[in-house]
């Protein structure tokens, strides 16, 4: 039983990248599916698939640089956690690496990047930083 399933999700991706794996399987939830879609749309993972077997899983194909074989995701870090939630208004949303990275935000209109939340003038809970 996990207390923080999002931290487990991010840790599985981080561990698979450091081990050089091409694919990682993660237990699925609606929240994790939305984060996976954002990572794919922003170009941090090469592909994903939602599998519904005995228990639902997300199968993520990780992305590596073709020349240096280094992972595209250099850092993926959990910000808000169950013991200490981090919220931000639309004016104070973080800018990751001066706009080169993304922050994933949970807003009242769903899960989105900080750039999208800034355009829609929405604040919310800062889930993680990716660059």
TrEMBL record:
Assembly and binders: Part of the 30S ribosomal subunit. Contacts proteins S5 and S12.
Signal sequence region: none
UniProt organism field: Candidatus Uzinura diaspidicola str. ASNER
Alphabetical list of InterPro entries matching this protein: Ribosomal_uS8, Ribosomal_uS8_CS, Ribosomal_uS8_sf
Keyword Coiled coil set for record: no
UniProt-listed NCBIfam families: PRK00136.1
This protein's name: Small ribosomal subunit protein uS8
A family per Pfam: Ribosomal_S8
Family in the record: Belongs to the universal ribosomal protein uS8 family.
GO terms for MF: rRNA binding; structural constituent of ribosome
Domain of life: Bacteria
PANTHER family found in the cross-reference section: 40S RIBOSOMAL PROTEIN S15A
Keyword Glycoprotein annotated: no
Recorded GO CC terms: cytoplasm; ribonucleoprotein complex; ribosome
Function field: One of the primary rRNA binding proteins, it binds directly to 16S rRNA central domain where it helps coordinate assembly of the platform of the 30S subunit.
GO biological process, one term: translation
Coiled-coil intervals: none
Keywords from the named record: Ribonucleoprotein, Ribosomal protein, RNA-binding, rRNA-binding
């Amino acid at each position: 039983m996990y207390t923080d399933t999002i931290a487990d999700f991010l840790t599985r991706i981080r561990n698979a990248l450091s081990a050089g794996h091409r694919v990682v399987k993660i237990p699925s939830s609606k929240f994790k599916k939305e984060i996976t879609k954002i990572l794919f749309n922003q170009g941090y993972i090469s592909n994903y698939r939602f599998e519904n077997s005995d228990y639902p899983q997300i199968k993520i194909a990780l992305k590596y640089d073709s020349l240096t074989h280094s992972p595209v995701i250099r850092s993926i870090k959990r910000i808000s956690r169950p013991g200490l939630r981090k919220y931000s208004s639309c004016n104070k949303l973080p800018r990751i690496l001066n706009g080169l990275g993304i922050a994933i935000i949970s807003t009242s209109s769903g899960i989105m990047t900080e750039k999208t939340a800034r355009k829609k003038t929405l604040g919310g809970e800062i889930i993680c930083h990716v660059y």
